[in-house]
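Input:
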Amino acid sequence: MASTSMNWSAIDADPRFQELHARKTRFLWGLMAFSVVYYFLLPIGAAYFTDLYRVKVWGAINVGLVFALSQFLVAWGIAWFYARKASEFDAMAEAIARDANALGLQAR
Amino acid sequence: MNAKKFVLPVAALLALAAGPALAQAVSKEYTFLTFSVFGSIIAVTMFVTYLAAKRTKTAADFYTAGGGVSGLQNGWAIAGDYLSAASFLGIAGLISLYGYDGFMYSVGWLVAYITVLLVIAEPCRNIGKYTMGDILAFRNNPKTVKTFMAISTITVSTFYLTAQMVGGGVLVKTLIGIDYEISVAVVGVLMLAYVLFGGMVATTWVQIIKAILLVVASLVMVALVWGQYGFSLPAFLQAATADAGIQAQVARLLGDASRNLSAAELGQRFLEPGLLFKSPIDQISLGMALVLGTAGLPHILMRFFTVPTAQQARKSVIWAMAIIGGFYVLTLFLGLGAAMKVGAPAITEIDRGGNMAAPLLAQYLGGGKDSILGNLMLAFVAAVAFATIVAVVAGLVLAAASAMSHDIWVGVIKGDQTTSEEELKAARICSLIVGVIAIAIGILAKGQNVAHLVALAFAVAASANLPVVLLTLYWKKCNTGGVVAGLVVGTLSAIGLVLVSPNMTYPLQVKAAQEKIIKAQDERLAKLNSELPGLTDPAAIQKAQQGIAAAEKVKAGAQGAITALGDSKTSLVGLSEPLFPLRNPGLVSIPLGFLAVLIGSLLYRDRRAEEMWEELYVRSNTGIGRAGASAH
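Output:
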């Protein structure tokens, strides 16, 4: 299924692809690391900072509940942020894909 | 008691199958309602299947709906695949019995999709075609990696499938009282009808329909229960903490520790952590398996091959996250609502794990046990739960069957030399085989505690599937040696650790726990029996008599559990106590899986894998040369 008629190294070497790759890597893994850390703070906090979770902030609502609810907002926020950023990546990828034939053939 | 507190609900949550159901939720006179609602939903899905069958002409149609599903549709279908009965009934139940901890538990199921969104969905769409094996075959030895990946896919799907089949059988039995074997067979035959005739098209639409029904049912229930408090969150939670039933439940859970707490403090305690989860390390281990395992579940990954582009794959995860997250927020209201309106004792009387919390809340909101509307609502929620199980099972069977037909039969045995017609036929035969096996396993596993199997499926997916897919996509030096090592080590370590974990039944420990229960009930009986003669108030006498009857029942249950153990003294693998302290192996098996891929790749060395890296990386980032929707 791999069609090796394309010269992939030529595309890989293209500065635009290099930039796309670098920006995407930084962005995605940074966001990924943030989300993992933020998520694991919840069970860790529940186990070791129970007193903090008990502090009431609004009626019966305590810090623990606010933190748990914030997980949903943060997850949705990450999705929204990524979707916005991804359209930039899409545009870059599209430009490369448009020139791909020329690029690939050029180096052949 | 602590260990038991943790075991029962989590176990029941994960597979919806812990322990026998104690009572039937729908009284005999109203079963016709349940049957009619079940019948209507089945009729609608059958009609959809009929339409889908006409559109299923090629192998691509069968495996991936021809790649013609839109992002929005796929988002709903992913939600349908993911919101299994375990998360719908189970999490609402956990919140109704344990408050905050149940809600905290639901968070991991949503966060899991961030991994899918950021690093898995789009590259998979750009690189893969029908199966996970396709992704790995891109730059590795196709026959070798397809064989191992297919085995892993079938393993993960079978674990998940068994839990769903047994859970489905128990659910239908509890709700309408038909025999377990018949329930399992009905689930299996329906699912096979969807898959065999309609393939992925029908499976997708069944999942969409079911997800919409699930969300609508939950929204209606939340509106009814939250509306009583003017849709104010503080007022709703205040009412929960002031509820006498919830306060009593907290007192029961805390035992002696609750002596010095006031009623208000007990109620507030329900919104604080620690009523369910006693072992933070175990919980973190479970969190790891959820967050990383979801991205390695074959039936979830397969959904990304049904959309035409990486952009649509991204859009589908974002929709799925909105739906799934929104749904889990609703479970907070369902769970707390059930805790207030139905009460923990009534919930656990029907099912010890709390799985019936949402259906019972529906019954209450409709007007209660003796009203037609109440039973209609119960029937509707039950039918949605049933549809959920059938749809999830259909997705699982499709994933396992495509691994068998596309990876093993076409890829390995036929060396990719088949026509689309032959492959379609093979896919249908494999679906039939997997489906029949699923029904057989479901019936054979009757009464077994299969609760840990869903957790195990996630653990294997996180420890074996995710490392190999992730490193194939993102690490230049990854190769066939690493993939094989990762799949073998990840799968075996996850399964091995569970076999020696506290998930297994250790007869001596069970016996000790049950004897403790018997002793406590004996004391309660002695106390009640000595008080009874002195009582004059008829209400008090009735209460004491009820207490005696309840204690006798609990005692008989415990004695039954001891008898059921027979002469066995050791667990399945011959241990008298667990070797590995955690119920969830992820904390150890996930790093082992990654390590195995690293070491395997470095030892094996494969020039082709490195040469193919550039092509893979360019393709996965740009979508150039993506396998077309129906091209082969």
